[in-house]
Specification:
Shape: globular
Distance between the termini: 90 Å
Order of helices and strands: HEEEEEEEHEEEEEEEEEEEEEEEHEE
Helix content: under 10%
Structural class: mainly beta
Radius of gyration: 22 Å
Number of helices: 3
């Protein structure tokens, strides 16, 4: 009887281990992991793979999900039934990605350092609450219409003084962000991913109100038409900086049924009413075909931020400007 009980326990443990097994997303040709690939559930929610292309999916955790849509920049989107998710998912590069040849000349010669100062405040109600289903983009133009390289991005954050423990210390958190770059369309909106690589960074409760991201090594030169830099939350991390496997939304029971509420992440992002020339664009990663929209009343007429005039994110930057005689 004792042996039979032990057998059942081991069987159950083995079964749970199988259904909770890591799922890897990789390049179909090189077999290299596709870092931070997007996993959309087709219902306005989703998650991300980690830096090694790994994510977890169980039907117990996401009982309402029928199909997973796997995508990453430069790859064809892949739809997989939730009942038949393989251990390894292969993504195929798009044709235009395979045929693209990138020629990126590094700016050289004499330059002057210039700065676009960030705008910060710590008013909770005038902040954007980051979620994994949203992305915020800010446009940067050449300085004095001269060849310009971005060397750092200055990210204003609010770590929330309200999140103070009884001992008087800020409650700990560790959030992974990603910076991406986009070209500028004819109408001034972000369009297609730039040739420049993305960059990840972690913010904790110990971060200063302006977090400086050094991207000089990426050699990012602003085109004549300008360049968008966006930031996106990927989720909380453990002490090793690896994404924590956790549901990215909550289900709240209402009179009309269950409503899905996206999980918000610390730190908050302070939006400002003092900027008039820098347009901020936002988009929903898992909805509306990922279309970019300028953050104004046309995006959401009920947004408290927009209605109060806090319609721009004051991301700053430092530049190397190469003046030509």
């Amino acid at each position: 009887m004792k042996n039979w009980f032990l057998f059942n326990i081991l069987f159950l443990f083995g079964f749970l281990t199988v259904i909770a097994q890591d799922i890897k997303i990789q390049d179909a040709d090189s077999k290299e992991p596709v870092s931070f690939a997007t996993i959309s559930f087709g219902n306005g929610n989703g998650t991300f793979a980690d830096g090694d292309g790994i994510f977890k999916f169980t039907q117990k955790m996401y009982a309402d999900v029928d199909t997973l849509f796997i995508s990453s920049l430069g790859y064809k989107e892949l739809a997989i039934p939730a009942t038949a998710v393989p251990k390894v998912i292969n993504l195929t590069q798009t044709t235009d990605q395979l045929e693209t040849v990138i020629l990126n000349a590094k700016l050289e010669g004499k330059f002057k350092n210039r700065e676009l100062k960030p705008v910060h405040h710590d008013v909770y109600f005038d902040c954007w609450l980051p979620t994994v289903e949203s992305e915020i983009a800010v446009r940067f133009n050449r300085v004095d219409e001269q060849p310009t390289q971005i060397t750092t991005l200055q990210i204003p954050v609010v770590v929330e003084k309200s999140q103070v423990s009884k001992k008087g210390k800020l409650r700990a958190f560790s959030t992974l962000f990603r910076v991406l770059f986009y070209d500028v369309a004819a109408d001034g909106s972000p369009v297609r991913k730039s040739v420049y690589p993305n960059h990840t960074f972690i913010i904790t409760e110990e971060t200063d109100e302006i977090y400086e991201v050094n991207i000089e090594h990426l050699n990012i030169t602003i085109p004549k038409s300008g360049l968008f830099a966006s930031i996106q939350v990927l989720g909380y991390t453990n002490e090793k900086g690896t994404l924590i496997d956790a549901k990215k939304y909550r289900e709240i029971k209402t009179r009309s049924g269950y409503t899905k509420i996206s999980t918000t992440y610390r730190p908050l992002l302070p939006f400002t009413e003092t900027l008039t020339e820098r347009d901020t664009y936002v988009r929903r990663i898992f909805l509306n075909d990922r279309a970019w929209q300028v953050f104004d009343l046309s995006y959401n007429p009920n947004s408290a931020l927009v209605r109060s005039g806090h319609d721009n994110y004051g991301m700053g930057a430092t530049f190397k400007v190469f003046y030509r005689d």
